[in-house]
Task: structure prediction
Amino acid sequence: MRKNNGTYYFDEPPLIIASAGVAGKKEGEGPLKNYFDAVFEDTTMGVNSFEQAESAMLHDAFIRALSKAGKSPSEIDMVMCGDLLDQCVGSCFALKDLEMPFVGMYGACSTMALTLCNACFAVDAGANTVAVGASSHFASSERQFRFPLEYGGQRPQTSQWTVTGAGAAVVQNPKTAAESEKGSPHISAVHIGTITDLGIKDANNMGAAMAPAAARTIGGFLSDTGTSPDDYDMIVTGDLGYTGSTLLYELIKREYGVDIRSVHKDCGLMIFDLEEQDVHSGGSGCGCSASVLCSYLLGEMNKGRLHKILFTATGALMSPTSCKQGQPIPGIAHSVLIEI
Result:
């Protein structure tokens, strides 16, 4: 492994040998409906709470990813996972019965990229197989961060719809990979983001809170690697939505002199139809970028339609406590270079 500023390069890139993305009813009515491994019409998943439903969806995503990889839980060196709920209980209860060594991680909506980055470090240090994932649920997130659904609060146009979904992937050490796995998408480099705070306090405008961190991370990665936007099939952000994506273009042009509009896609804009689904600025949540990456994006790479993407999941590092105390919402973004 080599390092240049915030970017780490892998001499033997870890492989993503399998992935699975699952989604709820509203997400299953959007543009990516045919790409998800499963769409659950009943977003309560037949359990007693929305939090338990989120765990059930995440559990399902991991089972599907492990099955595709041909791995049993006992073959996984460790699982790295996170969600938006207090103490990451969504992940804990999703995985507790699978008996896998567990590393809980919180990066807000950047968690899918965060777990992939750390999985690569673990593999580079000698681990054979690491499972990663993230989840979110509209109802559990609204209850924790904003208002209970029963309140019926009005949402401003800058607000985003928390995705009910989950994604899981299996990262394999190339030294121990089977021949059939060696043609899988691989992670060539990762960039660990820096917390960026421009003083945004509006919990209904997370795109504006996260865009500065996204610009900093993407701009830093392009600078570190000496590449331009045209070198990528896609530069994908996690869930900036319409408001955050518009701000990202302005910031990265001003700070780094690059225009990424021709190759940029945002998971929060891909997963919903803004005109038809009344989600205002787009999708958000850990499950947004996780489900889109683990279904659509990696699926297109395995089909040979995409060859090089810079996956940059973004997170708003707030909590119910910090918001009630009037604290600003710092942003974070981590980048993962995936090639095939």
Notes: The chain is about 35% helix and 25% strand. The chain has two domains: 2-172, 183-339. The longest strand covers residues 15-24. The CA atoms of residues 77 and 129 lie 6 Å apart.
